[in-house]
Amino acid sequence: MRIVPIPILRDNYAYLIIDEAAGVAGVVDPAEPEPVCAALAREGVRLTHVLCTHHHWDHSGGNVAMAKRFSGVQVVGSADDAKRIPALTTPVGPDDEVTIGTLRGRVLPVPCHTRGHIAFRFGDALFCGDTLFVAGCGRFFEGDAAQMDHALNTVIAGLPDETRLFCGHEYTLSNLRFALTIEPGNPALKKRQAWAEARRAADLPTVPSTVGDEKQTNPFLRVRTSAVAAAVGETDPIAVMAALRARKDDFTG
Question: Is-above-0.85 flag for pTM?
Answer without folding.
Answer: yes
